[in-house]
Amino acid sequence: MRAKVIDAAHGGGGRASRVLLESVIAPALGTEIIEDQARLSLDLAGGRLAFTTDSYVVTPLFFPGGDIGALAVNGTVNDLAVGGARPVALSLGLVLEEGLEVDLLRRVLESAGRAARAAGVAIVTGDTKVVPRGAADRMFVNTSGVGVIPAGVDVSARNLRPGDALLVNGPLGDHGAAILVARGELALDAPIPSDTCALNGLTEALLAEVEVHAMRDLTRGGLAAALDELARASGVGVVLEEAAIPARPAVRGFCEVLGLDPVHLANEGRLVVAVPSAQADRALAILHGHPAGQGAAIIGHVRHEHPGVVAVTTGFGGERILDVLVGAPLPRIC
Fold this sequence. Notes:
It is built from 8 helices and 13 strands. The protein has 334 residues and is of the alpha+beta class. Helix 1 packs across helix 3 (102-119) and helix 2 runs parallel beside helix 3 (102-119).
């Protein structure tokens, strides 16, 4: 690969495309030459196949704690994991803008490869397209993933039950805050790294030891959007304890300055999990024992009353409804 930047020929399917694949993409991902079709040997053992896809358009491509490559891998792994699946394999599609530096592309792909290996999944197929300058904001990434849901596992948005305890695995809002700080648009200088990481090891530990009714990763829309979805799907009410919701002091200060709330900010390594109240302490111990759950907390419970409504108990003893934002407080956070 002698070229320093991507040009239209690299997306044309000819020799330049092959050189890009063989010299940059496959070596950076640590894989063999990627075919259009992957052949997987899956032992379902009475389980079910899970499948998901997502696209990533984050700006900037690199930010404190992560980059678009790791973000794409972790995000798709987490979409499978919170459904109770064991992630097995991913595809990785690239939309590259003419003029993108090859060294930058290699850095992104190497990061994606490291994230895949850390999560124990393989990137087995992919695609690359090149578009004219100005048509792709430098680089877009799509990842799809397949996994296996073991027999007996039933994790669903419809499974919340009155009396369930709700837990999160760490402080909220890190990713959304990190992205905006990284853009430098607000002259903020807060040391907030993204929380991006794979959660499949954490979810597997929970599923092995407690009865998990529902899980959601807290990406766009944050905790508020995830709980709104769960409450509506299950036809139950949700009550959170405002004082129990974890967030870093830097993120709370960031939100106060901008009039935001950590419960609405995006996360890329956080989940909410619902378990029977009798198992809440055990679930919390499991979360605390995993690197991705050391900031975990029990934040609320599920109730019969007010189905479809998420409420927050305030420090004054009253309740307020936790609304889902109509739009997004931050653009392009994932």
